[in-house]
Amino acid sequence: MAHWNPSGKLAVVTGASSGIGRCLSKQLVARRCCVIAVARRGDRLQELADQIGRDRADGMLLPIVGDVTDPQTRGQIESQVRSRGGRLDLLVNNAGIGGIGPFERATESRLRKIMEVNFFAPAELTRRLMPYLKSSGDAVICNLGSVLGHRAVPDKSEYCASKFAMHGWSDALRAELAGASVQVTLVSPSTTRSEFFDTLVESDAGATSKSIGSWPAERVAAATLTAIRKRRAEVVLSVGGKLLVYADRLCPPLMNWLLQKRSGQ
Questions:
Q1: Torsion of Cα atoms, 49 then 54 then 56 then 61, to 10°
Q2: Which of 15, 41, 89, 259 is most buried, most CB within 10 Å of its CB?
Q3: Which domain does 36 fall in, by range?
Q4: How far apart are CA 191 and CA 202, in angstroms?
């Protein structure tokens, strides 16, 4: 099958105001793709739209300011897709949040907020947009997961759970849509150098995250676009990320021991 071509296509990208979503939106527009960019921070979205306008890149960027956990925002996205012809070629579920700290000391609100943003909202948005994706005849759903959706680590239990959910849902959805001309791609980065850690949910004071092979957001976005264009089912990014995933597959007891040592058990 030929590579997926962004030119002339319509895409929805969530979490588009910064990091991977911002970079991916710019890369898509540069390839003549019309992007509906969704994020909570309107000033950052407007900066992105202004920058794209100054650069005179081909394609368009249509900003929607809102929270994907809000059904009203999801309705706005659907209305914009419908107004553009009722056909959607690419959905990138990128918006996400995290939290750091032992589960025992965390709150119910942290668990629920992380699961809502990282899993429930993208799942419901995808369900809502499914008729338009099927109308494309050549659509891709790209879910941004994490290497921590393959192997959980201490002090990020809620985040790991949300990414395991994204991983399992992506696998099931891919099988369900096999005959519908809708490809489901799961991209699993390790640590991305972005503003992600500036917005941690109810995390311990001074909490930090140890890198297992960090990439800049631009590189993650480029690898994500390559995975989309090649219609890949799943990609794990960075050497460190691959080591974590494949070491766990080959020798789970060793990984259990290493992670227990890391957490001081």
A1: 0
A2: 15
A3: 10-238
A4: 20
Q: In this structure, is residue 262 part of a structural domain? A: no
> Is the residue at 254 inside a domain?
no
User: Above 70 in pLDDT, residue 133?
Assistant: yes
Number of domains in the chain: 1
The reply to whether 245 falls in a domain is no
Which residue among the candidates 4, 119, 159, 169 is catalytic per the annotation?
159
Q: For residue 191, give every residue at least 6 positions away whose Cβ sits within 8 Å of its Cβ, in sequence order, or none.
A: 209, 211, 212, 213, 214, 215
Asked if 159 is an active-site residue, the reply is yes
pLDDT band at 197 (very low <50, low <70, confident <90, very high): very low
Gap between the Cα atoms of 39 and 61, Å rounded? 13
CATH number at residue 58: 3.40.50.720
